Amino acid sequence: MRVTDRMLHDLAARDTGSARSKLEQAISRASSGARFTHPGEDPAAAGLVTVDRARAARLDAIASSARAASDELALADGALGEISTAIARARELAVQLSSSNYGADERAAGAKEVRSLIASIRGSLEARSGNRYVFSGRADGASPLDPLDPLAYGADAGVREVEIAPGVHQAASVRADVALFGASGGVNVLATLDTLAAALGANDAAGARATLDGLAAGTNQVAAARADAGNMMAALDAGVAASEAGRDGAKASVSRLADADPIQSALELSRAQSALEASLAAVAKGFQLSLLDRLK
User: Fold this and answer.
1) Contact 247, 60 (CB under 8 A)
2) Neighbour tally for 296: CB within 10 Å
3) Which of 130, 128, 115 is nearest to 155 (CA)?
4) Is the alpha carbon torsion for 276, 279, 285, 287 positive or negative?
5) Which DSSP letter does residue 151 get?
6) CA distances from 105 to 93, 98, 199, 201, 208 (A)
7) Exposure class string for 217-229: b at 16+ Cβ within 10 A, else e
8) Which percentage of the chain shows pLDDT scores above 90?
9) What whole-number distance in Å separates Cα of residue 6 and Cα of residue 41?
């Protein structure tokens, strides 16, 4: 078969077009830093990148939620610390003012201080993180205090849970109804303090002394709640660390699959430029020779 000028022209145009396309890809790779710009260029890698990006996003969301829950538990623990201090002060007053060395005036002053301690504890129980009451169980937007009974718990008795790994959930709230209001057979601390204040106000030393066991039990309940909060925070913090490690690993995988090596990209760009220049030079020379043949 005779090779015509038209065939040579078409072949040269095809080779030049291919070289130009490769140069454009090399320029895009070098400028964007991406190993491929269309999934069709490497379908297997593109699929893995999609999976790893979704995994990184989910693990990042899990870490963020677990971190926020740990911060809320730290806030709850601080509030429980304040409550523990208030109960300890009430116990001091009960021991001191149940002695016969004190009279009605001192006990009246003590009653006033105990009322102040009750108000302080109620304030601590309304601790919030943003709009969320940290002692209201799963009823985030409701106060834990009963609006009709100042000595009763008024919110949800459930426990919030937070995902700390895909499909793994961790308890993330303190049951204030157990720690302070006598649920599960415990002592109602606020009611005990109210009884103490009433006894002191009535100059009833024996009545004040009778509250000591209840105050001791309340101290233990609050201590147990703080221990639970500490254990939950430890689990949440471990979940944050694991999720962040998994997220970083997924991001590293995306980078390995999708990001172009800068040195390799520069070499490919140089080769593509040289190939296009060589192709253009060959086309120019071919047409030059063809023209000379026609002029002979």
Assistant:
1) yes
2) 4
3) 128
4) negative
5) T
6) 14, 13, 13, 9, 15
7) bbbebbeebbebb
8) 63
9) 32
> What letter would DSSP give residue 132?
E
Tokens coding 235: 């689990």
Q: What is the Rg, in whole angstroms, of the alpha carbon atoms belonging to the chain?
A: 38
Band of residue 270 on the pLDDT scale cut at 50, 70, 90: low
User: What is the 8-class DSSP label of residue 181?
Assistant: B
How confident is the model over 195-202, as a mean pLDDT?
Answer: 98
Amino acid identity, position 247: R
Give the CATH number of domain 62-254.
Answer: 1.20.1330.10
What H or E segment, with its residue span, contains residue 171? strand 168-171
Tallying the residues shown for the chain, one arrives at: 296
Average pLDDT over residues 187-204: 98
Q: Are 131 and 140 in contact, with CB atoms under 8 Å apart?
A: yes
Tell me: pLDDT of 18 over 50. Answer: yes
Task: Locate the domains of the chain by residue range.
Answer: 62-254
Are 118 and 197 in contact by the 8 Å Cβ rule? The answer is: yes
Task: Identify which of 139, 145, 138 has the alpha carbon closest to the alpha carbon of residue 172.
Answer: 138
Measured distance CA(44)–CA(52) in Å, rounded: 12
Sign for the pseudo-dihedral over CA of 171, 177, 182, 185: negative
